[in-house]
Amino acid sequence: MSDSEWLAKRGIMMTDERISAYGGFSVPVEFLEDAAAQINRQGLPMQLGHDLARPLRVRNVRAYVHADEGVNQLWCNLEVHQDDVRWFETLPGMSVTMTLPIERDSRVGRGTRGGVTISADHAWFDDDSLVAAESALTVDERCDETISIKRAYQFGLVPDPQIYVDVAYAVLLSIGANVIWDGVKVLLAPPPDTRRVVS
Is there a cis peptide before residue 190, judged by omega within 30 degrees of 0? Predict the structure, then answer.
């Protein structure tokens, strides 16, 4: 692709402002700085609506933290392919999703085990719901030590009731999709009909 096919864009990905949907949760400025350094080392894949099946073509992503009227903002400069620029002009803005261990796991150093990770937006799904999903998975002894459950936080947009499932390919072959689906069904039934505000 020639350089003429790429257009320079910039935007805010997240800030340290408190988010009411997550009970006033706020990320520390150190997290923003670490995120900027990681993006600059490893790049940043982008998708439409947090959908991995809808990637955006971007390159030369550079992130930095900027303070504006007491609010720290994680900015990025990047180049977007000309055919994907329309999404930057028609959508309400950028949004970043991050995941953190639930309170139980953060206290005891768990939450990084690996083979299967289920995350759900914390404005809709509380820790008890995630533990119930974990329990549905651990019924299968082959899966017991490979599960991680995490809170998901979506920055930049009003959070939707998103559920994210990451599965290592070897684990999927070993235990099968039906076992993983049992855990996800716990979160889906009954579906959330009102947003839960975290206290």
Answer: yes
